[in-house]
Amino acid sequence: MFTGIVEELGEVTAVENLGDASRFRLRGPVVTEGARHGDSIAVNGVCLTVVDHEGDEFTADVMAETLNRSSLGALTVGSRVNLERPTAVGARLGGHIVQGHVDGTGEVLERKVSENWEIVRISLPADLARYVVEKGSITVDGVSLTVVDAGPDHFTVSLIPTTLALTTLGVKQPGDPVNLEVDVIAKYVERLLAAGREDGR
């Protein structure tokens, strides 16, 4: 489990096309400290498994399902990425419960710059709209954010200077894709309510 609090901005150092998958090598001195084979690291909000690591770099394989469902397929050598290790048991939950299982992708539609923050409007796939509510939580490229406004096909978030400086959201421009993960609790509630209706409760 992750919390959506990005630990560092990493960098893609190599991409290998494996046909129905891709192998990425990524640099991240913080997240590779103490890393072992089989560990999980979230890359732009996608939970990936460490295949190998050497120094401050690690390698991860990304299967076709993940490439199709997320924006990782658009990464190239030199791309900056948000990196986060799983939260430790007993640690503070700084953001919200994040699984690293991307539900879909959105697109940056607009940025409104203010003196101390920016409002960013992002497109929202129709099948995810019911999970996104005003003042609720959403994960954008691995960053836990609070929804400012929720529409039928878009939502807005407000980015503080820290988020702008320490994550890729500070440089995303209109037209850029972003990974979206909605609040998993909302999905469980929906499923439980549906099961209750089927049982006639």
Could you describe the 3D structure shown?
- It is a single chain.
- The protein is mainly β.
- It folds into 2 domains: 8-84, Elongation Factor Tu (Ef-tu), domain 3 (Beta Barrel); 104-190, Elongation Factor Tu (Ef-tu), domain 3, CATH 2.40.30.
- Helix content is 13%, strand content 41%.
- The strands form 2 sheets. The chain has a 6-stranded antiparallel β-barrel with strand order 1-2-5-4-3-6. It has a 6-stranded antiparallel beta barrel with strand order 7-8-11-10-9-12.
- β9 and β10 (143-150) form a beta hairpin.
- The mean pLDDT is 92.
- Keywords: Repeat, Riboflavin biosynthesis, Transferase.
- Catalyzes the dismutation of two molecules of 6,7-dimethyl-8-ribityllumazine, resulting in the formation of riboflavin and 5-amino-6-(D-ribitylamino)uracil.
- Homotrimer.
- Its EC number is 2.5.1.9.
What is the element layout, followed by pairings?
Layout: E1 8-17, E2 21-27, E3 40-43, E4 46-54, E5 57-63, H1 64-69, E6 80-84, E7 104-113, E8 118-123, E9 137-140, E10 143-150, E11 154-159, H2 161-166, E12 177-182, H3 184-198
Provide the descriptors you would attach to this structure in a database record:
Riboflavin synthase, 201 residues, mainly beta, Elongation Factor Tu (Ef-tu), domain 3, 6-stranded antiparallel β-barrel, 3 helices, 2 domains, 6-stranded antiparallel barrel, 41% strand, riboflavin biosynthesis, repeat
User: In DSSP terms, counting alpha (H) and pi (I) runs of 4 or more, how many helices?
Assistant: 3
Order of secondary-structure elements? EEEEEHEEEEEEHEH
- Cα(first) to Cα(last) distance is 32 Å
Question: What structural class do the secondary elements suggest?
Answer: mainly beta
Which shape, going by the Cα principal axes? globular
How would you characterize the largest beta sheet? 6 strands, antiparallel, barrel
CATH topology of the largest domain: Elongation Factor Tu (Ef-tu), domain 3
Ranges where pLDDT stays below 50 over 5 or more residues in a row are none
Number of strands: 12
Mean pLDDT: 92
The CATH architecture of the largest domain comes to: Beta Barrel
Strand order of the largest sheet: 1-2-5-4-3-6
Radius of gyration: 17 Å
Q: How helix-rich are the residues, as a percent range?
A: 10-25%
The portion of residues forming beta strands comes to: 35-45%
Output the CATH class name of the largest domain.
Mainly Beta
Compute the number of structural domains.
2
Lumazine-binding repeats: 1-96, 97-193
EC number: 2.5.1.9
Protein name: Riboflavin synthase
GO molecular function, one term: riboflavin synthase activity
